[in-house]
Amino acid sequence: MESKMPGCPLLLNQIKPLLSILFSLWFVSGSPVLAQEISLYDTAIVEQYSESTGISSSESEPRLQRSRNVVYAEFLGISHFESINYERIFFRSGNVHFSGRAGVSLMEILLVRSASGENPGSGLNCGIGTPAWFPVSFNAMYGKKKNFLEANVGMTFSTQPDHVLFPSAGLAYRHQALERGIFLRISCYSMYTSVLGKVSLRPGLSVGYAFD
């Protein structure tokens, strides 16, 4: 006795266009000429499938490749003078991206020691009040392709004798290559200095290289 499954024909009708697309891509993968001839047919199938399922064609398009890693130098910003940083995008959904950043700034130490004739390799603090700075931040970005609006919160740790922490928050415009290329960010931070007991505004300029 045959068991009737009324949902099967409907299910087959729904997945048939997808199976057709997958088979055609596999069949013409080694033949650009055939791929060009069948592209119009595949486009029609995708549109028909979108109409039958309610999924828009924009949702069925593949996502753009996105560079996840960035190495860059930031001038001013949440470090005292400059910093070398590494940042990675760890989550993305549509036009929203989240990343984490960590960096180090030793330029002030090197400048002071060079002027005083000290050995640059004698520790992180040269003993005359010149600290190293370690900025970290969490960044939320919104945008398409290469251009983003960014909001961030962070903390900068200093190796001063009292190990001062500088919390910060900021807004930025960010340009990041899709796969590999130039990274540029123009930012403005508000940073709280516990020693002075006040909040100060600090501009920042970041230039670097993005890669996947």
Quick overview of this protein structure:
The protein has 212 residues and is an alpha+beta fold. It contains four helices and eight strands. It is elongated and about 70 Å long.
Per-chain topology:
Blueprint: H1 7-27, H2 32-53, H3 57-60, E1 69-76, E2 82-93, E3 96-104, H4 107-116, E4 133-144, E5 147-158, E6 165-176, E7 181-193, E8 198-211
Helix pairs in contact: 1-2
Describe the structure.
With 212 residues, this protein is α+β, with helices and mostly antiparallel strands. It contains 4 helices and 8 strands. It has helices at 7-27, 32-53, 57-60, 107-116, and strands at residues 69-76, 82-93, 96-104, 133-144, 147-158, 165-176, 181-193, 198-211. It has an 8-stranded antiparallel barrel with strand order 1-2-3-4-5-6-7-8. Helix 1 runs antiparallel to helix 2 (32-53). The termini are far apart.
